[in-house]
Amino acid sequence: MSETGTQSLTDDIPASGVFDPPAELAAQANVTQADYDRAAEDRLGFWADAAGRLDWTKPWDEVLDWTNPPFAKWFTGGELNVAVNCVDRHVDAGRGETVAYHWVGEPGDTRDITYAQLKDEVCRAANALTSLGVQAGDRVAIYLPMIPEAVVSMLACARIGAVHMVVFGGFSPDALASRVEDAGAKVVITADGGYRRGAPSALKPAVDEALTKVSGVDHVLVVKRTEQDVDWTEGRDQWWHDLVDGQSAEHEAQAFDAEHPLYIMYTSGTTAKPKGILHTSGGYLTQVSWTHWATFDLKRDTDVFWCAADVAWVTGHSYIVYGPLSNGATSVMYEGTPETPHRGRWWEIVQQYKVSILYAAPTVVRTFMKWGAQELEPFDTSTLRVLGSVGEPINPEAWLWYRKNVGGGTATVVDTWWQTETGAHMIAPMPGVTATKPGSAQRAIPGISAAVVDEEGKPIEPGATGYLVLTEPWPAMLRTIWGSDERYVETYWSRYGKDVYFAGDGAKLDEDGDIWLLGRVDDVMNVSGHRISTTEVESALVSHPTVAEAAVVGATDPTTGQGIVAFVILRGDAQDSGEDLVTTLRQHVRKEIGPIASPRQIMVVAELPKTRSGKIMRRLLRDVAENRELGDVSTLTDSSVMDLIGAKMPASSED
C-alpha cells in the first residue's frame, strides 16, 4: 500500500525521539565508542591508524604539517600509489575473482568486473596514456557517461601520477571548455555518447565544439558506447578500443608523494569562474577509505554497496571509486535514471544484486515519495541494512519515508554532511553507536573537529542557529583552488581566521548538541529582518501529507525586503484544490515555523528544474519569481520545465 499520510510515519518515531542502533549491527559494528574516545585523546594518532589501513611504499615522517595554515600537508614524506591501493593489493591478496563492480547499463546490458579484470584494464589504459605522452603531473580531462571506462580512466591517471579532471556529461561545451582551459588538460577522454531516459545522448560533439575554444589538447580518446556517428579529427581523435585494448596488461606502478595531486574537481563559486578544487593522494585516500568502511559499516565479504551518484561529482569520486575500491568492496554502478524503463528500476537492481547498502540524495528519495511506496512492492529490498543520504539536508519526512519504505523499518539511516572541498564525510552518525534523529546529520565523525558559531566566531548555545565551521585540518581536505592560492584563502579561510574553515552552511545546534544543517547561507532569506532558511520552509511544506517535494526561494519584496515564494510537487494521490490548498499549506507553515515564514506565493508544479545530478536550480526559480530573464538552463534535465512554471507564475500571486 502507498505510504502517503504524515501521521503513519510520525507514529513510527520512538517516544525518545531517536532510533537506537539495531542491536545486531551494534554488536558487530566496525566503529564503536572506543573510536570516538581514541580520536578525542589523540586525533593525529587516530588518523595515523586510519592511514595504516593502506599500503605505503615509504612510511611518512610526520602525520600533519600545519606550520603554514591554511596550507596543510598530511603524511609528509610518505609515498604510495593510489591505484595500487584500490586494485593491485586486493589481487595480490588472492581476491582477484571478487567482483569490483556489477555494472548495469540503462538499456539493460550488464558487466560484472572482477578486481583482476579491473587491474588488467587499468594497466592497459595506463600504458595507453603513457603512449600518448602523458606524464606525472599532466592533467587529463574525462567527459564520460556512467560506464566502467570512467573508473578505469581515473585509476589509470592515478597509476601514472597524472591529475584527472572529470567533467559531468551534462555540462555544455562552454562549461567543458572553461574547465579544460583552466586545468591545462592535454588529453580528453570521452565517448560517442551515453544513454539517458531511454535514448542515446551524444557527448563527442560537445568535446569537438569545446576544443574549438581552447588550445593545448593533443589527443581525444573516444569510447564507443552508443554507436552514434561522430565527426573525426585525424591525428587528434582515437578510438579507445583501438588504442587501449591492444596494450599490455602489465604495468609497473610508481609510488608518489602523499601530497602528489590526485584530481581537480570544479565546483560553482560566487563568481562566474568555477573553482578548481585540488585534492591530493595520501590524506584523501586515508579518509575516504576509512569513512566508507566506518559510516556504512562495510563488511566487504558480504555487503553489496551502491552509491547512486554520478562518478563526475565528488560523491562518485569518493564513494563509487576510491572509497569502495580501497576497501575491496563489491559495488553496483548504474548508468541510467530511476524511472527508465520503469519507476521500479532501482528496486529491481537492489533485488537482482542483493544490495545491502544504498547511498542516495534526498531529492531522489522525495521523488520516490511522490511516486508512492507501491512502486517498491513487486521487488524484494529486504537485503538493505544501511541507507545513506548525501548532497543536501534531508527533511525528517523524507528520512522517515526512506527508513520505513525502502529500509523496511529496520535499516539504519546515515545522513552525511560533507562537501567537494572536504573530500570525505565530516559529520554523520556511526551506525553502531549513534542514536539517530530524523533530519539531523548528528555530530562530527571521529577525528573531525566541527563547531557551530555566531557572526563573531564564538560557539553558540544549544537551541541557537549559526554557521558551521571546521576548527582543525583533516586528511581529505582540499589543498588549494587550482591556480589561485589567494582565492583559496579568501573563499574558505578568511571569515574566522586562517586556521578555521568556513563551510558556507548554516546550522542549528539542538539541546543535545546535535547538528541540523540548514543549507547554504546564501539560501537564507531575509524577511522583515528575520533570517529564514529555505531548507526549514521546504521541510515544513514536505511534512504536509499532500506535498512530495518543495523548493523555496526569496524574491524581492518592496515591503518585507524578501518574500517567500514556494514551488511544490504534490504526492501521487493528492488533489490540487487551488486556493484552498494554498491556504492550507500557508497555515501549515505558520504552525510549523511561525507566521513570519508564511509563503507569499505557493505554486503547484508538475516538476522542478533539476540538473542531471538531481540538484534543484533555485536560481532559475528566483529568476521566475522576480520576472527576470532566465539564466543558463543548459545543465537542466528538461529545460521545458521552466516554460511551464513561467507560464503559470502570475496566477499564483496572493491578493
UniProtKB/TrEMBL annotation:
Gene3D superfamilies, per database record: 3.30.300.30, N-terminal domain of ligase-like
Domain Acetyl-coenzyme A synthetase N-terminal: start-end pairs: 33-86
Nucleotide-binding keyword on record: yes
EC number in record: 6.2.1.1
Post-translational modification: Acetylated. Deacetylation by the SIR2-homolog deacetylase activates the enzyme.
EC class (word): ligase
Tagged with keyword Hydrolase: no
Binding, CoA: 196-199, 315, 528, 590
Binding site for ATP: 391-393, 415-420, 505, 520, 531
Function recorded in the entry: Catalyzes the conversion of acetate into acetyl-CoA (AcCoA), an essential intermediate at the junction of anabolic and catabolic pathways. AcsA undergoes a two-step reaction. In the first half reaction, AcsA combines acetate with ATP to form acetyl-adenylate (AcAMP) intermediate. In the second half reaction, it can then transfer the acetyl group from AcAMP to the sulfhydryl group of CoA, forming the product AcCoA.
Family: Belongs to the ATP-dependent AMP-binding enzyme family.
Annotated protein name in UniProt: Acetyl-coenzyme A synthetase
